[in-house]
Amino acid sequence: MAGTNELIQRMDDPETGEEASRLLTAMGAQAIPDVAAAIRESAGPLQPLAGVLLGIRASDAAEAFLGLIHDDETTVQLASIEALGFLGDPSAIEPLETFLTNPEELPVPKSLAAMALGNLGSKGSITVVSDVLVSAEREGEGKLAVRCAIALAKLGDHRGFPVVAELAEKASNPAVRALAVEALCHVAGAGAFGVLSRALRDDDFEVRQAAVEAMYYLGTHGAMEQLVMAADDEDDTTAYNAVVYLRRISGDSLGDGEAVAVKRWWNRQGQLFSPDVCYRLGAPIRLDALVLLLNREAARFDVVREFSIYTGRLFGADPYLRSNIRQVSREVIELTQHISSGFVSGAVYKYGVRMDLASLIGRG
Questions:
Q1: By the 8 A CB rule, do 179 and 211 touch?
Q2: C-alpha 44: how far from its chain's center?
Q3: Residue 327: what pLDDT?
Q4: What is the rounded CA–CA span in Å between residue 106 and residue 97?
Q5: Domain of 294?
């Protein structure tokens, strides 16, 4: 079998690069030092090499990655921090907490450390992440504050919602507004529907795109009505995604998907949907019914992501395992058979915690 350095060299060749990347990832922890060195020395393609680090899931990899979280090479550092969040090794929790609270560290790696702690799932990290959220808001580090709020939501704590909601509406930087609106797929709180409705009228198209996705996660009559209007957005991606999400919520083809046909459908069928119920495929959302969406190959990764947000189970589905989506989908189906009875039909859940839907839509 080829050694790590030979495989790294093969990654530059379009014909052998994909296979070399797969083999390096399969080598696990033993590949980490050489891959990191290749990134530092620009001895191979940067992004594919970073992808190798991010794809390693070996049980003995945490120690190697922890040794790289202060690396001078930014790509190595960021990939190592992010990878720790997907390994599931509790030995990484304390070092990541220490990293996150270090005022000398930069906001971007601290954001990844917060997200990693959210993925690792220890409720003991809530106080640490919450304190950093408060300081990030105070110091005007909006993206770090949003990432901390998402991490807290993954740990079952939604205290970051007011910060996210304010940034979604008032941040001067549209990239921060977009990130805050996207975070509302994960973070919930009173009046979330109103925040998203206003975001759908933001001047920035990326904010509107993020709002379309977050409305999908509400899935109520009011959310559907907003998506119907978004189907006529001047930004083609926003309009297209609005129709895609409406189809998943309603289970209807919506004719040709053009704005006129969507509005015509809504005028006929809209009254059939209740304002206080979350829908998928035309019925109150049920965890086992979501399995049906996995039959749509193009939607599988999004559906697995939704399962993760809904249940709090990562299912091994992170952005770096997309190529394994069929196996992950089978794992989702198998697990659903065991846990679906614990979720109430038509309710909204975030990471296994049932949300007050009346409060979310402004009726509470």
A1: no
A2: 29
A3: 77
A4: 14
A5: 287-342
Instruction: Provide the residue type at 9 as one letter.
Output: Q
What are the pLDDT digits (tens) for 257-303? 899 999 999 999 999 999 999 999 999 999 888 888 888 887 888 88
| R_g of the chain computed on alpha carbons | 21
Instruction: Identify whether 146 is part of a domain.
Output: no
Distance CA 11, CA 53 (A): 14
Coil, strand or helix at 289: helix
Does 78 lie in the same domain as 12? yes
| pLDDT at 340 > cutoff 90 | no
Same domain, 222 and 273: yes
Q: Helix (H, G, I), strand (E, B), or coil: what is residue 279?
A: strand
Q: Which helix (H) or strand (E) holds 275?
A: none
In one-letter notation, the amino acid at residue 140 is G
For the chain, the distance separating the N- and C-terminal CA atoms, rounded to the nearest angstrom, is 63
Asked if residue 207 and residue 82 are part of one domain, the reply reads no
pLDDT digits (tens, 9 = 90+) for 178-190: 999 999 999 999 9
